[in-house]
Each structure stands twice: as structure tokens, then as C-alpha cells.
Amino acid sequence: MAGTSDLGSPTLCRLKLRLELRALREEAGLTSSDVAKTVRWSAAKMTRLETGDGWVQPTDVEALCRLYGASAEKTELLASYALVTKTHKDEWKSKEYQQVILPGFSAWLGLENAAAHVRTYESEYVPGLLQTESYMRELLRHTRRPQEEIDRQVEIRLKRQAVLTREIDPARLSVVVNEAVLRRVLGGSELMREQLNHLANRATAANVKLQVVPFRSGFHPAMTGSFTMLSFEDAKVGPIVHIEALGSATVIDDRERVRGYEDTWADLIGTAASHDRSIRMLKQAAKEM
């Protein structure tokens, strides 16, 4: 069986397993109900296997692969994915973090940590991967959460930023922000000046690209709201979109719906100012604070 240390995070392995098992079943011309009846499983178990909900038994995967006529190599790979979901644990699944993370968001954090490319549009505030600690605390202060919970949230956000600076395969980050992000003063001029200068400095990294949508641009294709899109090295795992709303978070992996966001992103970066001009806008906004 393949070494589990090279297969990615448990969250990513669950995603790969879900996509692969569903594709094999469809190639075999079977429905989920057909499979459940054949192997004498409940419909709930089939749903869990194909939605990647929780850990998966390697023996269950092997049974499905036999039914689907998968090759020995494919069976071994998928069983390895299942083993990772069973024996490894994403850092974000720990009890201390689960108490302060929105339901479902820990799975997204696992995917973000495994992403090769993060693309994000933010309309109101600096994206989390580029926030200073002071800016984070100011944002979280307005949530009226207990100080202990705010401290834990800050810890989580700072750890997330390591995806951009890790020694091996740091993720690429492409960011588009509305000019309002530069102009909305949070926590006073000094805090915002620090944040804007930090943003400009981080945008000089080789793996970071930043663009600003100027107010003068008028209409732009992402006026309906912020979103983040993750892409992975494994071409079989298509881009995934995350949308965060008040008290909830939604992950979209339906190919047609994701394609709509890809189109929006392409239009958005065409509307936004260039990377170099955007950095000049950041520095100018910082001076004017």
C-alpha cells in the first residue's frame, strides 16, 4: 500500500476518495441503491462513503473496487486514501479548535492547507491569509466573543498563513479586493496603516498576486459577494469554492456551479487594476491614513 505520509491531508484524501468512488460507480453503470443492495449496506453508509463524511474503512473501499472492476493499482491507491482518513487527523479537527470553528469550516481549512492555488475576492476586509494580528483582533472584537475564543481564532488564522510560507511547495495566492478594503478604517489610522503596508509587502512575494478593483471601475462581476476558490495539484480534484455568510459557510464542488465562479474570476481580474498599480494604490492609501 502507498505510503500515507505522501497522500495529503485527511480532508483532501476524503475528497479524492469521494470523487474516485463516484466515478468508478458511474463507469460501472450502477446507482447508489444498486450498490447498497448488492453489498448489503444501508443507504446511509453509501451516502457517507460518497460524500466523504468522516473516516472510511479500507476494507469497504476494497469491496467497492471489486464490485466496480477497478484495477489492483487503483484499489491500492483508494485503500491508501481510506487509511489516511482513518489513521490521521487534521489539526483543525482537535477539540480545542472545534469549539470556535463554524460547523463544516474545519474541513475547508484542511483543503486550504493542501491547496496549490488559492484565489479569493474580498469586498469588505483584508483576506485572512494576509491579515496582521492587530487587524484580526479588531475584526474579531466586533463579534463580541469571549477573549479566550478570540485568542483561539487569532491562533487559527495565523497558523493558516503558513500555507504561503512553508518550505515545501508553498501555495500560490491570487487576491482581488474591492477598493473599500483599503479605505474602510478599522481600529484607527495607525492599525490600518500597518495592515496596508503589510499587505503591500506580502504582495511582493513571488507566490502572491494582488489586484484592487477601483471605485472608478463601476460595475464589476463579483458585486454579489466575496468568495474563495481552491485548486489542487491533482488534476482529478477540480476547483472548490467557499462562500462564508453570517454564521454559516458553504462549500461548492459541483463542476457546473464552480465553472460559473471561474468565469467570474476571469472577468474580475480583467476589471481590476494591475498588480503593480494595485500596490501603488495600497501605499497611497496607507499614506493617507
Q: Would you give an account of this structure?
A:
Helix content is 51%, strand content 12%. The chain is α/β, with parallel strands linked by helices and 289 residues long. The chain has 2 domains: 6-89, 434 Repressor (Amino-terminal Domain) (Orthogonal Bundle), CATH 1.10.260.40; 92-287, Endonuclease, Chain A (2-Layer Sandwich), CATH 3.30.870. Helix 1 packs parallel to helix 4, helix 2 (32-39) crosses helix 3 (43-51) and helix 8 (133-141) packs across helix 9.
The residue-averaged pLDDT reads: 88
CATH architecture assignment name of the largest domain: 2-Layer Sandwich
Task: Work out the number of β strands.
Answer: 6
Order of helices and strands: HHHHHHHEHHEHHEEEEHH
- Estimate what percentage of residues fall within beta strands: 5-15%
As laid out across the biggest beta sheet, the strand order is 3-2-1-4-5-6
**What is the C-level CATH assignment of the largest domain?**
Alpha Beta
State the helical fraction: 40-55%
- Total of domains: 2
Short account of what is shown:
By secondary structure, the protein is α/β, with parallel strands linked by helices. The chain has helices spanning 10-27, 32-39, 43-51, 58-68, 72-87, 95-98, 105-114, 133-141, 147-160, 179-183, 189-202, 255-271, 275-287; strands at residues 117-122, 172-178, 208-213, 227-231, 240-245, 248-252. Helices cover 51% and strands 12% of the residues.
Give me some keywords for this one:
Endonuclease, Chain A; 6 strands; 2 domains; 289 residues; disordered N terminus; six-stranded mixed sheet; elongated; 13 helices; single chain; 434 Repressor (Amino-terminal Domain); alpha/beta
